[in-house]
Amino acid sequence: QIADPETCDRMYESLVRIHTNYYKNKYPRLKDTSFTGVTVEDCKMILATDILKQMEDMKKGTWKKLREKFYAKKPEEDSK
């Protein structure tokens, strides 16, 4: 048995509105961007693993890049 059927009905109706995207359809957005202005496609591109590897390479310092370029051994061997 439900103690308060009115509260239960209100909660159920609220969940139905969430499930059916009621407010998304009622208040459509003019542009599909975030508050920073980044689109969904830009976010997906940033999160791709290839882009992350490129960003990690860009974060490396000049000396580290030069050392990796001129050393014949791999960086994993440096830590041994």
What does this 3D model show about the protein?
This protein has 2 domains: 1-29; 31-73. The chain is mostly helical and 80 residues long. It has 6 helices and no strands. The relative contact order is 0.05.
Short structural description:
The chain has 6 helices and no strands. With 80 residues, the chain is mainly alpha-helical. The model has no long low-confidence stretch (mean pLDDT 78).
- What are the segments in which pLDDT stays under 50 over at least 5 consecutive residues? none
Beta-strand segment tally? 0
Count the DSSP helices.
6
Please give the alpha-carbon distance between the first and last residues: 67 Å
- Oligomer description: single chain
What profile does the largest beta sheet have? none
Strand content: under 5%
Q: How would you spell out the order of helices and strands?
A: HHHHHH
State the domain count: 2
The rounded Rg comes to: 26 Å
Structural class: mainly alpha
Envelope shape = elongated
What is the mean predicted local confidence, pLDDT? 78
The helix fraction, in percent, is 55-70%
Protein name: Mitochondrial nucleoid factor 1
Organism: Alca torda (Razorbill)
GO cellular component, one term: mitochondrial nucleoid
Main location: mitochondrion
